[in-house]
Every structure is written in structure tokens, then in C-alpha cells.
Amino acid sequence: MSSPVERAEQVFQGLGVSPGIAIGRAVSIASQEHEIIRFPIPPDRIDEEIARLDEALGKAQAEIEAMRLKAGAELGAELAGVFEAHSLMLNDAAFVGKLRARIAEERVNAEWAVHETAEDLASRFARLEAERFREKSQDLVDVSRHLLRCLGAISHHDISELEGEIIVVAHDLTPSEAIRLGRNRVVGFALETGGRTSHTAIIARSLHIPLVTGLPGVTELVTDDDPVIVDGNKGLVTLHATAE
User: Fold this and answer.
1) How far apart are CA 117 and CA 102, in angstroms?
2) Tens digits of per-residue pLDDT, 180-236?
3) What is d(CA 204, CA 182) in angstroms, rounded to the nearest whole number?
4) CA 149 vs CA 29, 146, 177: distances in Å
5) Which of 47, 128, 187, 204 is buried most deeply by CB count within 10 Å?
6) Long-range contacts of 32-35 (CB under 8 A, 24+ apart)
């Protein structure tokens, strides 16, 4: 039987936003795009669909509150404040009103209403220059993903059954994803996007997990089990690392 082909070592320069060096096997997570399908809702089922949305809002609110309390107890008030902002967003009458209105006026499923509304608002905030508006854009993405999970549109990233030390390679990660993954033998993050002041970077530093961002296209270059080194001190990520 022929031996597996060795892949050449590749080194990428990114931005080290959480210090430290981690060595592990790659696990790629597709966190940028989700297949959200638009379904037409008959007029006599609009109230039922809004009720589905309200139930998911309540579930998401309870889960985020639990994460806020856990983050406050284990990681401090600053990170608990991230989830407090998410909780306030789910309670915001204007945001929730837009979701309900979209369902009623466009006669669409709750998943589509959440996805489209969050995309619209997040893109508006992202275009604004102030850092606080860009952070609000990130919060909207996180909240919408959480709400979509509660509606059953997307699943949690569950890597708890994988063995060994893991380097998560992804387009991006929301703060709640970073906390959840950081408790499952994840020893490093390599992301295509993100900056030094992002909530995800703050969480990685609090969890003492090396993080390198600014690596466009990296998710397309790795396969699961590839050996990876993340150097958060120098902002370097090494794929298919040799023993040396």
C-alpha cells in the first residue's frame, strides 16, 4: 500500500491578536455562510410564524443570559458586557418589530426574516466609521446566528467528540462561538477576518488561546487533521508543519 503524500509546509503572515503558541490539528468551520431558504407563508399562518419567532427569541434570550452569567463569573465583567449587549438587542423593540413586520408584510418564514433583517442592519453599521458601530455589526451577526440556531436553521459547532488538541480554522467566529469552542480542547484559532479590538479577540486573550487573524483564504487550504502551528506572538500560521 502506498504511503500518503506529504504536503509542503506553508507559512502565512497574519495579525497576532492573542499571544502564545499552539500546535494542533486543523478543524475547519464554515461560519460565514448558512443556507437559509425563503419559504412563502400563507396569510392564515402568519400569526403562527410570528409565534415561532417569539418562542425562539425567548429561548435565545435565556441561553444568552446563561452565557452572560458564566462569562461574568469566569472571565470578568468586560466579557459579560458583550452578552449583555446581545440580550438588550433581543429585547430591542425596534429590532424585534422589524422581524415581525418582515414576516407579516413579506409573508416569509421566520428564518428568512431574521437572516435578511440582520444582514441589512449589519451592513449599514459596518459602513460607518466609528468603531462602536462596527462592533454593533458584529453583535448583530452573533445574535442572528444564535436566533437561527434556536429556530433550527443552523446547528451548533460541536467538536467535543474530536480527539487531541485542536486548531479552529474559520472565516470568522462570533464571541459566543469563541467561548463555546474554547472549552472543547481548542488550543488555537486561525481566522480569515477580525481585528485586535474585536470581541472575539478579547475573549481569546481572556481564555489564553493564541489567535491569528487576517488570513484570507486559509480555510480553503486546510483539510481536517492537517498539523497547524498558530503563533499569536508573531502573527504566523504554519500549515502542514514539519516535525522540525
Assistant:
1) 8
2) 787 668 999 999 988 887 878 888 998 899 999 999 989 888 876 788 999 999 999
3) 8
4) 16, 5, 12
5) 204
6) 32/171, 32/172, 34/115, 34/145, 34/148, 34/153, 34/154
